[in-house]
Amino acid sequence: MTTSAIKSILTAPANLGDTGRSENGQSNYKWLRVCCWSVALALGAAQAWATRFTMNPDGVSYLDIGDAYWRADWHNAINAYWSPLYSWVLGFFLKVFKPSAHWEYPLVHLVNFLMYTVALVCFDLFLSTFIEQTTKRDRDLIAPSEMGLPKWVWLVVGYSLFVSSSLLLITNSFLSADMTVAAIVYLASALILNIRKGVASRGTFVWLGLIIGLGYLTKTVMFLMSVPFLAVAAAAQKHSGRSIKPVALSALAFFVVACPFVLLLSLARGRPTFGDSGKINYEINVNEVDFFIPEVQTAQHPIRKIAGLREAYEYAYPISGTYPPWYDPSYWHEGIEPHFDARNEMRSFGRSILQCCWISLSAFSQLNITATLLFLYFTAPGISGRFKSARSNWLLWLPALSGISLYSIVVIEARYVGALFCLLWLVGFSGVRMPISAASRRLAAVAALGLALTTCLVIGRQISQALNGFDLAGRHVGTPTYWKVAGALNARGIKPGEKLAVIAEWPNASQGPAYVARLARVEIIGEMRRPDDFWAADASTRSRLIASFAGSGAKAILICKRPQIESGWERLADSDYYLYRLGIGMQ
Fold first, then answer.
1. Residue ranges per structural domain of the chain
2. Is the pLDDT confidence value at 93 over 80?
3. Are 77 and 65 in contact (CB under 8 A)?
């Protein structure tokens, strides 16, 4: 947006924003949308590029499962923890482009950016419908002497909320299905608004069910979220004075999409299930079972512990994948039943509340949105009627609050609730009321432009940190060189398909060996989580561990910390990774 355009907005007459036209009668909204889209895409692309070599535990599992689907390895592909849609997409791009180790992770981040673009398209459809209905409803709900936000302000605020929620909460840097879920939430919300408008055809209801069904194939929680979405669709249809029977088409379409995968999962697990991610996350976050090594007596498939050593494990069979404990957690957690613990549940719920507070009040998250909304609410005289319009958007905030409440029982991460917070923020801004005057419009303009600017600054700071080797928590991790280490690993004779053991506090942590193993196409079959204990142990204890790894089929041991005993350890690609090839005696 040019300086002259901003100046014209700040000095606009009282009736500008309602018509959406400049003094010469030409609409400025087209160019404003182009500007917003350009900024949103530029920031999304910059974030994806700045973090193009990074990886995370979920990303490794999604990539492995995607490979299994596209090579028709159904036994290893059907997974009760990881939903399939995101893996299908990743696997498709890897199969088509066949990237080298150097380009695999950047390609996956490109896919993430494409999903971000899809989410932007879905949000644009939703925002257009939302603004149209909000503007129309404002004429009926507010006093003749008051006004809501002008349309151009809605555009700036709306896209700012999308960018903030997508790049600060969900992010393009973390490889997960959450951006795809966001796109589905926005599209489903747009359809529900159309249903309330009273112009929905039977096809609209079918599409709603299909989209929510795709949401379930993207993330298991959407199976439960289908209930509030279908409920508000029925209520919206009734509110428009029409029969709610077409909502049955939505339910039918949802089950047509969801049932085949539910059936496959149930057959694979030998019991009825639509997915185990909720159950396992409850065990982990509330019952405090370990993420990767669930040492619980009732486990039907306990990970095998190497005798005589603390936190040393072997898992060479029967689960494959780069890192088997996280490739199919439902197998290793089988037999562990979540149980209600009031104290831990309250602690988990408290953490969820704190996380929501951090999202809303942190200067590095969405404090600028909170401050802008409060500024607009309380600078106008009087607060009567502020919540009337917001309450009328219950079709949006009810599913959003239902989703946040559902997560809060177990755990809330910012990426889980990014789209839901975006909906709530929009509902909050729909309650803004100001006297009809040029001063009010200038106030709204300053608030909207300030929100857009601060959003860009916060995201720009994050991108700058990533380019300088800092992670999202502000820790300096350097620029990942996983592909170099993977190439060096293969060059040392560790071939794709062979097995590897690791010594690391957490194989999937930042700079963890699992990210190297994925690119080298080798499988981790054992680990020791206490490197210091390994170096402190006597020679016979170390030899026993090495023999156990070798007996499980490992060709070498990989560590990402300089070994205290250097004999037999080879440094890989001038990195912090060291390799010990089994069969070479340690002195």
1. 176-269, 303-332+481-587
2. yes
3. yes
